[in-house]
Write a structure and sequence with these properties.
- The strands form 3 sheets. The protein has a 4-stranded mixed β-sheet with strand order 3-4-6-5, with helices on one face. Strands 7-9-8 form a 3-stranded mixed β-sheet, with helices on one face. It has a two-stranded antiparallel ribbon with strand order 1-2.
- Strand 1 and strand 2 form a beta hairpin.
- With 212 residues, the chain is of the alpha/beta class.
- Helix 4 crosses helix 5 and helix 5 crosses helix 7.
- Helix content is 40%, strand content 18%.
- The mean pLDDT is 92.
Length: 212
């Protein structure tokens, strides 16, 4: 297979196949170039975040202004994210904000799971909130669910799409026709959220190391 990621292009060939990676790449040259250029266009939108006061930051699909305030914990109101002044004296504002986003993501993701608990005919084992570089969510063979905390920066319908996508994998492990049919039954408009995520994924980057 050919993987096109933020860091470059990689060809993966089974040892026993006898396939020449360079020849394989050349055969798929047009496809590789097309997708690589699309990836570079996406990377061009990578935001430069400093977490300084007054900076705009996405939260639940809307831009919010960062404020340093005399509050006890990170607070969101009136399209503003208030970060405790005392907290940034011991930790970077980015770290303080990440702690808040992780906890809020866990709450919202669990709410979506609960919403569909009677629809999904399988149970998950454990729930993990992570910061995967290349995935927004995953479902392991042991029925463990993992979600990227940065989904909380996206619109709620996008977060819901990713959560439900992995829930459906509890029933249909592979991306089969049955999988997409089931997802469509639960979320008829899922394609809109899927397209939004592909187009706007750079908006959901907290730091450059999130993707590199």
């Amino acid at each position: 297979r050919i993987d096109i990621k933020m860091t470059g292009v990689k060809v993966v060939v089974p040892k026993a196949s006898g396939l020449d990676p360079e020849k394989f790449m050349e055969e798929k040259r047009k496809w590789v170039l097309k997708n690589y250029r699309e990836m570079q266009d996406i990377l061009a939108d990578l935001p430069e975040r400093t977490f300084e006061e007054g900076e705009s930051f996405p939260y639940q699909g809307e831009e919010h202004e960062i404020k340093y305030s005399e509050v006890d914990q990170v607070t969101v109101k009136n399209r503003e994210i208030h970060i405790p002044e005392e907290a940034v004296e011991s930790k970077s504002p980015g770290d303080v904000l990440e702690d808040f986003l992780r906890e809020k993501a866990r709450q919202d993701i669990k709410s979506v799971i609960e919403k569909y608990s009677n629809e999904i005919e399988a149970d998950y084992d454990k729930l993990y909130i992570r910061n995967q570089k290349t995935k927004w969510g995953s479902c392991s063979g042991k029925n463990n669910l993992s979600y990227n905390f940065r989904l909380i920066m996206a619109p709620s319908d996008v977060l819901e799409y990713v959560v439900v996508h992995e829930l459906v994998h509890l029933e249909e492990p592979k991306h089969s026709k049955a999988f997409w049919r089931r997802l469509s039954d639960l979320l008829p408009e899922y394609q809109k959220s899927k397209d939004w995520l592909k187009k706007n994924q750079m908006e959901l980057v907290l730091r450059e190391e999130d993707i590199f």
